[in-house]
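Sample 3 of the quickstart, ligand zinc ion:
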Amino acid sequence: MMLKRFFCLLLAFALFFPLCGRVFAARNVMTCDWCGKKISSNASFLRSEDKNFCSEKCFNQYAESLLPVCDVCGRHFKEGFTSDGKNYCSKACLETSFRECCHCHRREPSGVIIGENLFLCSYCKELPACASCQMPLDKFAKDLGDGRSICRDCARDAVSSQSEMDSLMKTLRQELADKFKMRTDHDIKYELCSRNTLKKESDRDGERELGLFVFNRNTLTFFNRPIRSKDEFRILILNGLAPDFFRGVAAHELAHDWMQENVPHIDDPQMREGFAEFVSWAYAKEEKLDRVPWRMEQNTDPVYGDGFRKVRDMMGEARTAYEWKKILLKACPAPAGAK
Ligand SMILES: [Zn+2]
Ligand SMILES: [Zn+2]
Ligand SMILES: [Zn+2]
Ligand SMILES: [Zn+2]
Ligand SMILES: [Zn+2]
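Result:
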């Protein structure tokens, strides 16, 4: 998500300064409103608005005290910047309010947050990025052969074999059952695939699609009469994802599988994808997969991002699939006669 576009306003603080002080001769003994010294009669003094000053120095100090204070260094200043309700006396002080880019290490006013304490400046976020962690790529990037590349860190332990996927999925299903009582006994076929395969299977043309849940009800016929249906369950996930991201995607797809069993009538994409993202988010939070929840919280997509936030707010404190189902059914009642 873009940070709110930054703008700074050069303040016309010069308006306050100088206050006009006019010189008078005192008629009777007065007190300096700045230093408190007595001003004897006939001595010259300065007057500004309703205040009296024994000297130009006192008047100048008073005038300076009316100037805004820098929120960083505490200096009073005439011309400076204001941003988000704070005052900055100089560019150097203003820059302390910028976040440091985790890639180029410059402090920049705008960019995207890609993880806890991970900020990418608007320049670095345009660089070719790792298909797994979104960090800009360097010369050590690994080309996955389908238009994607991953960074060295992700390549080191990326999920790249079918057996690895199978064992991760088995563990994950158990974890979802233990943590959230979310389980199905569907015989799901897992497929670790390239982007081209995923694109072919998916009806969304999203470049950013990472996984897919496929359900098919195949009706078998016997002498032209339907006799029973054999349901087909598949989960496809892109190869080359770092394990944390893989688990985040897998939790999303397993949530679709659970929905197919429990709330198959829900066809509003925002609810379907929002709930799947919510499950993945809740799982990632518990497992401390740091950067996964951030992706969802920052996602501006109207289906995935807005859907996630809508479902998260709807679920409140509910933490089991049993409660989630009740809430989903209340929001989207099943049509009469449906399971
Ligand atoms: Zn004085
Ligand atoms: Zn300052
Ligand atoms: Zn940068
Ligand atoms: Zn990476
Ligand atoms: Zn989905």
